[in-house]
Request: fold
Amino acid sequence: MEHKLVLGIESSCDETAVALVRSDGTVIEDIVHTQQDHMSWGGVVPEVAARAHVRILPRLVGMLFAKTGLSVASIDAVAATCGPGLIGGLIVGMSYGKALAVSAGKPFFAINHLIAHALSPRLIAPCPFPYLLLLVSGGHCQLLRVSGVDAYHLYGTTQDDAVGEAFDKIGRMLELPWPYAPHVEKIAQGGNPHALTLPRPMRGTPHCHFSFSGIKTAVSRHIISLASPLTDAQKADIAASFQHAIIDILCERTHNAMRLMGQHCRDIEEGGEEGGEEGGEEGGTSLLVVAGGVAANGALRQAIDTLSTRNGFRCMIPPPSLCTDNAAMVAWVGCDYINHYGLEACRRFDKPVPRPRWPLDESL
Ligand code: KG4
Ligand code: ZN
Reply:
């Protein structure tokens, strides 16, 4: 099949991003602008973010075409994130993308941001279905079985905060610079991960759900109990203990999900069915994918790698720049759809409806 070129647009939170990706997985160009306007507010302000997307998005698209020497006439489709996320930003990216597609007479694809994270490793290396997905971002913490580009089964999700949100809150409590989470990771490297005894909610349970609010409260209580201002050594110990607790929980629940995934694969083998749209991998090695902004965390990457090796799973985590929000992964969903269904059949994804909530497993 002749390769197709997809323009991706991402604007669901505070990153304004555009990318050009070819259906053979070549990233022609990828530009991410992280808005700095939120620094003084201590978090993302939805209306400020939406107004910034209006200002920045057209400039980025202009830069994208200028850098590549391509034009809208060269692309085969426009793919824009339409949910889940902040409604203002979604409307900006979706309307801009749809207008561009209509004016150029190209198809438009409404992309689920979580699918973009879920399929992102396929842009880097072959990841045959089915695979186990640990999705860890600012708004989500889920374990799922991915059986095809459009087939997701939820094993477990957070009962309260998302894991990225917890990182951000701890960074704010420690009065670290914006963006908080990478600074939490940085100072954790110099701290003692056993300095604080933090809770491990739902430890020892066989399910795949998460809860992080108790850890956050325990950290907050500990900080209040100390004389302020905190020393750098105290901050480092808190960051290290927090990160250690989070990684412990993520690994324990991922281990539970590995068992469920193993059972699923055995059931399929006994039933004589295909493993997924692309079948199982030769040799039958199970695959674990980790995606979303928190997957940029080096300590988590290492711990998941060890967990995978111990349990006979191959582990695939995209490079950090592809874990945090970007438009290459959005364009890639368009490419993966085209590769699976063909360009014409993909017209069914032309549903420009912004969806603040858009679960991967729609049966729930
Ligand atoms: O996927 P993402 O860029 O946006 C959402 O879809 O939410 O994820 C953003 C989250 C932020 O909450 C941030 O705290 C987290 O990713 N994050 C990190 C690191 N870099 C970003 N968490 C831990 N360690 C990091 N190095
Ligand atoms: Zn994201």
Q: What stands out?
A: The pocket of zinc ion (ligand 2) is lined by residues 113, 117, 137, 292-293, 325 (CB under 6 Å). The chain has ten helices and ten strands.
